[in-house]
Amino acid sequence: MDNKYDAVIVGGGILGTFHAYHAMEMGLKVCLVEKDAYPKGATTQNFGQVVPSGMNSKWQKYGRESLRIYKEIQSQFDISIRQNGTVYLASNEEEEQLLVELRAINNSNEYASKMLTRSECLDHYPGLRKDYVKAGLFFPKEVTVEPRIMIHRLQEFLGTHKGMEIKMGFPVIHCERNGDWVKVESSAGEKLWAKKVVICNGSDFKNLYPEVFANSDLEVSKLQMMQTKSQGNYELKGSILTGWSIRRYEAFYECPSFAGIKQNEPEDSLQKQWGVHILFKQATDGSVILGDSHQYADANSIEDLGYDLDMDIDHFMVEEAKKIIDLPTYEIQRRWYGMYSQCKTSDIFQQIIDEHIHIVTGIGGKGMTGSAGFSKKNMATIFNTQKINL
C-alpha cells in the first residue's frame, strides 16, 4: 500500500505543487512527482510578483485567494513572501484615465486600492523621474516572492513539516488507467498507483499524450529579464509596473477607455514587436530585477524562439527603464529568459483523459498569481467535493 495514493500530481512547479497542497488539505494521501532533481522551469524563471490587480475579474478571484494562501503559509514558514504592495505608474493622461477606471472596478469588487498623485509617487519611489510619472494606483495587499527560492521552500514546508511525499528525479513515461486505479511509471521503472492523477508539467505532457498535445492550441512565450548589481542603500518597495503594463495587463481590458486607447498605438514600434513592458522589483540582496519581453511560438515549434538571449531586446529594455527610474546603477549582473506555455483561445488548458486522469497546464503568465487559488477550486471539482466559493 505504500505506493498507492488518492492523488498523484505530475509536475513540481507552482501549479502542480499547489494542486498537491490542496489535495493534502482535503485529507487525501498525496504524492507529488517531478522529473528533475528540483523545479527549474517557468516557476523559477519569472519576475516574482503576485498581482491580482492585473487580472480580469474572473482570475482576480483566484489571485486574491492565492494572496490569502501565500500569507497563511508565510505565517508558518518563510517562503520569501513580502507584502510591499504593487503600484501602476501612468506616464500620460490616457494611462491615468485607465487607472481611474480600474480603481472604480476594484472599488465595486471590494479590492483595496489608492490613487497616488504625481508628488506622492515621487515621494514613495526614490529615483522616479519627474518627466515620466503623472499619477499612480497602489494596491497595498499585494506581495512579491523570490522565484528562485519560493518553490523550494514551499516544497520543504510541505515535505518536512506537513509530511507530503515528494519524489524528485521521477520522469513519468507512462500513465494509464488500470481498473479502479491509474498506474504511473517512471523511466527507472518505479510504479505508483493513484485514484486520480493530475498532470501539471507544462508542455512536457506531449511525451505522455502526444495526440492530445498535437491537437491542443498551446503556445509558448519566451520572456527576457535582467538583474542589476546591488543598489547599495537604495530601497524600492514592492512591484513597480509602468505605462506599458497598464496598456498590456488583462485587468485594463475591462476599462471603458481601453479599446480606444489601444487603437491609437503605433503598430510598428519595438515595444510592440518584442512585447515589452517595463517592470521593476527589488530583490532581497538589494539588486533590482528588470523586465520583460514576450515572444511567441506554437508549443510544437518552441525551437523557433531560439535558445539565446537577444541583446537588442535587453538593451532596449534598459534604455526604456532609464527613462522611468534613475537607479544608482544599471550595471547588470545576470540575464536570463523564462518559457511558459499558455492557450491561444482559453485562459488555461484542461483535458480529461478519463475521469481519473486530468491534464491541467498552460496557465501562462497567471501562474505565480493565480495557481494557489485556482488549484483549490480545481481539486474540489476533480474530487467532487462540495463546491468552493472564492
Automatic annotation (TrEMBL):
Record carries keyword Oxidoreductase: yes
Cofactor(s), names only, from the UniProt record: FAD
InterPro entries, alphabetized: FAD-dep_OxRdtase, FAD-dependent_OxRdtase_HpnW, FAD/NAD-bd_sf
Domain FAD dependent oxidoreductase, chain residue ranges per copy: 6-375
Record's keyword terms, sorted: Flavoprotein, Oxidoreductase
GO CC aspect terms: cytoplasm
Listed transmembrane segments: none
Domain of life: Bacteria
GO molecular function: oxidoreductase activity
PANTHER family: D-AMINO ACID DEHYDROGENASE, SARCOSINE DEHYDROGENASE-RELATED
Similarity annotation: Belongs to the DadA oxidoreductase family.
Protein's recorded name: TIGR03364 family FAD-dependent oxidoreductase
